[in-house]
């Protein structure tokens, strides 16, 4: 059950945590499906939805796709695609923002390192954005969130 604090947006200036275009728009292998550049961000956003860490703004502005994500009737990157591949602070609750800020900037055990470690046999941008792969990274994010929460007490 989410608390009021979990669903309130962060009132600080909006910041962009990630953008799929930064991945598929740069040194992205030509043979790789563009959707693969959305996978890591989409998996994290889906996890945030699953854990009640998104803002009321996001839920109101994309209610159908949020519900479809929860029901698993769309791809785990569908919500991110709806938002043009961008993960920004306005999409997250106060607690969601605090966690993502910490997890993204952690150079020793952050999200990118965890993601690449979990999918090490596939390599960069070869992770298909499907529920099977989301289910692989989900327990890793769960663990890191619990570790982060323990440090907040």
Question: Descriptors for this entry?
Answer:
globular, disordered N terminus, 153 residues, mainly alpha, 2 strands, two-stranded antiparallel sheet, 5% strand
Report on this model:
- It is a single chain.
- The protein is mainly alpha-helical.
- It is 54% helix and 5% strand.
- The protein is built from nine helices and two strands, in the order αβαααααβααα.
- The chain has helices at residues 4-7, 20-24, 39-50, 56-61, 63-70, 78-82, 94-105, 111-118, 131-152; strands spanning 16-19, 86-88.
- Strands 1-2 form a two-stranded antiparallel ribbon.
- Helix 3 packs across helix 9 (131-152) and helix 8 runs antiparallel to helix 9.
- The chain starts with a helix and ends with a helix.
- Residues 1-11 have low confidence and may be disordered.
The count of β-strands is 2
Please give the largest β-sheet. Answer: 2 strands, antiparallel
Percent helix: 40-55%
Q: What is the CA–CA distance across the termini? A: 19 Å
Strands of the biggest beta sheet: in what spatial order? 1-2
Helices and strands, in order, run as HEHHHHHEHHH
> What form results from the Cα inertia axes?
globular
Strand content: under 5%
- Report the structural category: mainly alpha
Low-pLDDT stretches: 1-11
Q: What is the residue-averaged pLDDT?
A: 85
List the helices and strands and how they pair.
Layout lengths: L3 H4 L8 E4 H5 L14 H12 L5 H6 L1 H8 L7 H5 L3 E3 L5 H12 L5 H8 L12 H22 L1
Helix pairs in contact: 3-9, 8-9
